Design the sequence.
C-alpha cells in the first residue's frame, strides 16, 4: 500500500460532508474531499499529498446531474466526465464542453473523473478549467457559512490553486449559453493522445447578421500557471467582419502578455508560444466556420 | 487507522472483507482476493495494466480505493473467459493476431477492449487507437493489438447470438 494511512468517510449529504470537512480539516494532517480520485489518488500514492481524513463525495446524488437553469446550464460537480461528454443536452447547450471532453485523459479516466474534481484540481493544462474560464462559468461552493459563488475569472489563482477555501466544497458549475450564430472549437497538441497538452486553445465566437464578430472568447491551456484568457486578442476582433480577421494574426495576438509559460523537457517557452499561436489559429478557423453555418 | 468493511461482487462472487482505507482496489483484488491477473505497472494511472470493469465501466483499479468499490460489481480479467475456459472474442483475437509478447499489459488491454467493443461494436481504426491510448504496451508496437481489436469484432459477429457478445453485460 503506497498512500499514507487515512480515515475514510462517506457522508450521506453535502451538508454532512461540509460538516466533516470543517470538523476534521484543522486536525493533524487535515481532511480532503475525494471525488473521482483520478488526480488525488496518484498524488496520495506518490505521497505528494497526505491527509488524515478523506471525505468521499462521489456518491452524493445532490452533486450529480445536468440541468438547464434559465440561460445557464448547471452541471453537478460530481458528474463524471464520461457523462458530461456523452450528454445530448450538454452538446446542444455548451458544445465547448463536449468538444473538450475527449481530450481529458483516457476513457477509463473519464469514467471516474468528475467535472468538479477537474476544475477544483485546477491543472494549468486541464481542459475543463480552461472551458470554465473561456465561458465565464460560475462555480458554486458551499461551506458552514452557507452557499456562495465564485466567477471563473476569480477562481484560478495559481498552479493547482483556486479561490475555494479549505472548508468549502465545489458543488456545481453553471455555464452560460451563447445562442444563435455561435461556434466553438478546441485544438491542442500533445505528444501522445491523452497526455496533458504542451499547449492548447479554446475559441468561442458569435457572429451578427452582417457576419461581424459580436462576441469572442479565447482560452489557453498549458501556457501559464493557470488557464488564461487572451483578452486583448478577443477585444481586437470584436466588431470586425469575420472574413477580415487573419487566423495567424489572432494566434500571434493571443500569445501577447503570457509571462509564465512553463518550460520543461517537453518544450521551451518559445516553442510552447509557437504551438499556442498555431492552436489558436486553427481553433479560430474551426469556430468561425461553425458559427457561420449555425443559423 | 480504522479498517472498514467492504462488500462487493468480484466476477459474480460476493466478497466481504475488512480493509484499510488506503488499500487500492488493485491491491485488494491481488492480495485479498488472490486474483493476480490484474497487473500493476505504474500504480498512478498512466499505464492501464490494472484496468478492471466497475459496474461495467472500465476504470483504473490503482486509482480507486477498495472502500470506494463497496457495493459494486467488479469484473477482472479472470471473469472474461467462459466458465469452461473458452476464451472471449477479445482474448482469442489477441492470441490469434500476436497482440501480446511478454503479456504483462495484456489484462489491461483485454479489459479496455472488452468495454470499448461492447459500447462500440463496429469501431473505426482511429476509434480503436484512441480507445487503446490509455494502455501502454512496451513489446508489441501496438500493431498486433489493433489488428486483434478488428479481429475481435469479426469473431463476435461470427458467434451465435448471445446476450453479452463480448463476455460482459453492461
Sequence:
Amino acid at each position: 500500500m503506497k498512500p499514507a494511512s487515512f480515515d475514510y468517510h462517506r457522508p450521506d449529504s453535502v451538508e454532512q460532508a461540509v460538516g466533516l470537512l470543517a470538523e476534521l480539516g484543522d486536525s493533524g494532517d487535515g481532511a480532503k474531499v475525494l471525488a473521482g480520485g483520478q488526480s488525488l489518488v496518484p498524488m496520495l500514492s506518490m505521497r505528494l499529498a497526505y491527509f488524515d481524513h478523506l471525505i468521499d463525495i462521489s456518491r452524493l446524488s445532490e452533486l450529480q446531474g445536468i440541468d438547464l437553469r434559465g440561460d445557464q446550464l448547471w452541471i453537478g460537480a460530481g458528474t463524471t466526465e464520461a457523462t458530461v461528454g456523452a450528454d445530448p443536452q450538454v452538446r446542444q447547450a455548451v458544445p465547448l464542453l463536449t468538444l473538450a471532453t475527449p481530450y481529458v485523459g483516457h476513457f477509463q479516466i473519464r469514467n471516474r473523473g468528475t467535472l468538479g474534481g477537474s476544475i477544483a484540481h485546477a491543472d494549468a493544462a486541464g481542459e475543463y478549467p480552461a472551458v470554465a474560464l473561456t465561458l465565464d462559468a460560475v462555480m458554486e461552493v458551499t461551506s458552514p457559512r452557507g452557499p456562495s459563488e465564485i466567477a471563473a475569472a476569480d477562481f484560478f489563482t495559481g498552479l493547482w490553486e483556486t479561490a475555494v477555501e479549505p472548508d468549502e466544497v465545489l458543488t456545481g458549475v453553471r455555464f452560460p449559453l451563447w445562442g444563435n450564430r455561435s461556434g466553438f472549437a478546441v485544438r491542442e497538441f500533445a505528444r501522445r493522445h491523452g497526455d496533458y497538452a504542451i499547449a492548447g486553445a479554446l475559441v468561442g465566437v458569435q457572429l451578427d447578421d452582417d457576419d461581424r464578430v459580436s462576441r469572442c472568447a479565447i482560452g489557453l491551456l498549458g501556457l501559464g500557471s493557470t488557464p488564461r484568457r487572451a483578452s486583448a486578442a478577443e477585444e481586437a476582433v470584436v466588431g470586425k467582419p469575420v472574413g477580415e480577421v487573419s487566423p495567424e494574426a489572432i494566434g500571434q495576438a493571443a500569445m501577447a502578455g503570457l509571462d509564465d509559460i512553463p518550460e520543461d523537457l517537453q518544450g521551451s517557452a518559445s516553442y510552447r508560444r509557437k504551438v499556442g499561436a498555431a492552436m489558436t489559429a486553427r481553433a479560430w478557423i474551426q469556430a468561425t466556420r461553425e458559427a457561420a453555418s449555425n443559423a | 487507522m480504522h479498517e472498514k468493511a467492504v462488500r462487493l461482487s468480484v466476477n459474480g462472487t460476493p466478497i466481504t472483507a475488512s480493509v484499510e482505507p488506503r488499500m487500492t482496489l488493485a491491491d485488494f483484488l491481488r492480495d485479498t482476493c488472490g486474483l493476480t491477473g490484474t497487473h500493476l505497472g505504474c500504480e498512478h494511472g498512466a499505464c492501464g495494466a490494472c484496468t478492471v470493469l466497475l459496474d461495467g465501466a472500465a476504470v483504473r483499479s490503482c486509482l480507486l480505493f477498495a472502500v470506494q468499490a463497496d457495493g459494486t460489481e467488479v469484473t477482472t480479467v479472470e471473469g472474461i473467459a467462459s466458465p469452461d475456459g473458452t476464451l472471449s472474442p477479445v482474448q482469442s483475437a489477441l492470441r490469434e493476431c500476436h497482440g501480446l509478447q511478454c503479456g504483462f499489459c495484456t489484462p489491461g488491454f483485454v479489459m479496455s477492449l472488452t468495454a470499448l467493443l461492447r459500447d462500440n461494436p463496429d469501431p473505426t481504426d482511429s476509434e480503436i487507437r484512441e480507445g487503446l491510448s490509455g494502455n501502454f504496451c512496451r513489446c508489441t508496437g501496438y500493431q498486433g493489438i489493433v489488428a486483434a481489436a478488428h479481429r475481435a469484432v469479426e469473431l463476435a459477429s461470427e458467434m451465435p447470438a448471445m446476450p453479452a457478445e463480448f463476455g460482459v453485460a453492461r
Notes: Chain A has a mean pLDDT of 96. Residues 31 and 53 of chain A are 4 Å apart (CA to CA). The first strand of chain A starts at residue 7 and ends at 9. The longest helix of chain A spans residues 269-293.
